[in-house]
């Protein structure tokens, strides 16, 4: 690979073997280098291949401004997340997370404290991502000798990974979290009972609610009804089905989305399991 642009002493741009522009990072990689020179392979620590020219440019701008030590730590955080989170994480995480963590450190240095209003929901509904966030904050605090708030900042970092998994904009992902939270509340109030949030049935309910909430925010409902199955479930589990209808009514009022009857039936199946 040959250098097409030198960003700073540690970051350069080059074209890969397929002619795609990549951003390459390495300590001293760009020092004394010029356009057209081959990349010094022995100094390469990380190669970033983004999905668009705009994303590549955004990453270049970040890498030119953010201290190298922070960039290295963010890479470690993302590498750890890939081991913990089984879903595919979009490459934009390198941009969004680096920008967030750099800003969080600057806020901390200015003694500005920001609380995460979704802390309880993230900790409850996204335990893997929340653990990744906690590990990240502990790493940052240890290596940079700072004191970022563990729980709130862990939730904020987790939200970026959830966003990168779902491929949604941040506001959409927050809507998804809100839908899950309120669907659980409706179920608890309907049955006037606490739910066993450690059970496998609750975990499956949350997984289905994530899928359902994604349908709502993307305005893509079930493509086909199943009247026979819906009738069987509504007859066999009438209370759970009515609870599912309450969730669907909340969605209709808040998001102007009509939930298919078959989807209400699927909700009812999960509701029946977690309430009996």
Key words describing this protein structure:
single chain; alpha+beta; Transcription Regulation, Sacy, Chain A; PTS-regulatory domain, PRD; 3 domains; four-stranded antiparallel beta sheet; 11 helices; 7% strand; elongated
How would you explain this protein's 3D organization?
- The protein has 276 residues and is of the alpha+beta class.
- The protein has a four-stranded antiparallel sheet with strand order 1-2-3-4, covered by helices on one side.
- It has three domains: 3-52, Transcription Regulation, Sacy, Chain A; 68-166, PTS-regulatory domain, PRD (Orthogonal Bundle), CATH 1.10.1790.10; 188-275, Orthogonal Bundle (PTS-regulatory domain, PRD).
- It has helices at residues 53-65, 68-84, 93-109, 119-125, 127-144, 150-166, 170-191, 200-218, 227-236, 238-255, 261-275; strands at residues 3-8, 11-15, 21-25, 46-48.
- The mean pLDDT is 90.
- The chain is built from eleven helices and four strands.
In short:
With 276 residues, this protein is of the alpha+beta class. The chain is built from eleven helices and four strands; from the N terminus they run ββββααααααααααα.
What kind of assembly state do the chains in view correspond to? single chain
How far the N terminus sits from the C terminus, by CA atoms, comes to 62 Å
The overall pLDDT average reads 90
Structural class: alpha+beta
Task: Please count the beta strands (DSSP E, at least 2 residues each).
Answer: 4
**Helix run count:** 11
Which stretches of 5+ consecutive residues score pLDDT under 50?
Answer: none
Helix and strand succession?
A: EEEEHHHHHHHHHHH
Strand order of the largest sheet: 1-2-3-4
| CATH topology call of the largest domain | PTS-regulatory domain, PRD
CATH class of the largest domain: Mainly Alpha
CATH superfamily of the largest domain, please? Answer: PRD domain
What is the domain tally? 3
Task: Assign a percent range to the helix content.
Answer: 55-70%
Major β-sheet, in short?
4 strands, antiparallel
Strand content: 5-15%
What CATH architecture label of the largest domain applies? Orthogonal Bundle
The best one-word shape is: elongated
Radius of gyration: 23 Å
């Amino acid at each position: 690979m040959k250098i097409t642009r030198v960003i700073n002493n540690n970051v350069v741009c080059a074209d890969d073997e397929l002619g795609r522009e990549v951003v390459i990072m390495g300590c001293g990689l760009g020092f004394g280098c010029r356009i057209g020179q081959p990349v010094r392979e022995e100094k390469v620590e990380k190669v970033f291949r983004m999905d668009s020219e705009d994303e590549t440019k955004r990453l270049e701008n970040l890498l030119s401004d953010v201290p190298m030590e922070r960039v290295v730590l963010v890479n470690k955080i993302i590498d750890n997340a890939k081991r913990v989170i089984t879903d595919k994480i979009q490459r934009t995480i390198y941009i969004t997370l680096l920008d967030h963590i750099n800003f969080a450190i600057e806020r901390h240095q200015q003694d500005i404290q920001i609380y995460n209003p979704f802390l309880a929901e993230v900790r409850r509904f996204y335990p893997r991502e929340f653990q990744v966030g906690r590990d990240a904050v502990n790493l940052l605090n240890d290596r940079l000798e700072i004191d970022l708030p563990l729980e709130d900042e862990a939730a904020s970092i987790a939200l970026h990974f959830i966003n990168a998994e779902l491929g949604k904009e941040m506001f959409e992902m927050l809507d998804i979290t809100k839908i899950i939270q309120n669907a659980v509340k409706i179920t608890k109030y309907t049955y006037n009972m606490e739910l066993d949030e450690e059970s496998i049935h609750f975990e499956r309910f949350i997984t289905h609610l994530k899928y359902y909430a994604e349908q709502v925010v993307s305005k893509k409902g079930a493509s086909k009804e199943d009247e026979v199955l819906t009738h069987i479930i509504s007859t066999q589990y009438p209370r759970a089905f009515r609870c599912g209808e309450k969730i669907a009514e909340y969605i209709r009022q808040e998001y102007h989305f009509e939930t298919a009857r078959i989807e209400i039936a699927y909700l009812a199946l999960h509701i029946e399991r977690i309430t009996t």
